[in-house]
Amino acid sequence: ADRAPLCTTMSWDSHIEAMLATGTVKECSIHSAADGGLWAGSAGFAPSQQEAYTLSAALDDEDRMGLLIKSKVVANGEGYMYVRHDAGRNVYAKKGAGGLCVCKSTAAIIIATYVSPMSFESCIGTVEKVADYLISMQS
């Protein structure tokens, strides 16, 4: 697996703890955007390297994204219905009263879930904020 870049201010686990502490994220993980390798994750949430790589690659390839749109967005063995994406940046999906937010930074891909009463918008805000921070740190 691709080595995690050193983050000068916070460890990868600290980013996980910070996202969970907001109360807007049920579970989350941070992976290598290059190969999907797991860098950190919340207890019981560990999307496979293949799942993370598939999501990361789809963000950079509209044909691959098209396949996800037609089938399901999968993370941690759970299938989610595609909602929308912004090429190169994020993908959002829904399942029942919850959903999935995926956001890519320079070197990492963040995968997070939410469940009601957590809101889609709040989860997105949390994940995007961490991704923006990682981009500012060139991670």
What does this structure look like?
It is a single chain. With 139 residues, the protein is an alpha+beta fold. It has helices at residues 12-21, 49-59, 62-70, 120-136; strands at residues 27-32, 38-41, 73-75, 78-86, 90-95, 98-104, 108-115. Strands 2-1-7-6-5-4-3 form a seven-stranded antiparallel beta sheet, sandwiched between helices. Helix 2 packs across helix 3 (62-70). It is globular.
Multimer state = single chain
H/E series: HEEHHEEEEEH
Computed over alpha carbons, the radius of gyration is 13 Å
Distance between the amino and carboxyl termini = 16 Å
Let me know the number of strands.
7
* Percentage of residues assigned to helices: 25-40%
Strand order of the largest sheet: 2-1-7-6-5-4-3
Poorly predicted residue ranges: 5-9
Main β sheet profile: 7 strands, antiparallel
Summed over residues and divided by their number, the pLDDT gives a mean of 92
Q: Tell me what portion of residues adopts beta-strand conformation.
A: 25-35%
Number of discrete helical segments: 4
Task: Classify the secondary structure makeup into a structural class.
Answer: alpha+beta
Broad shape: globular
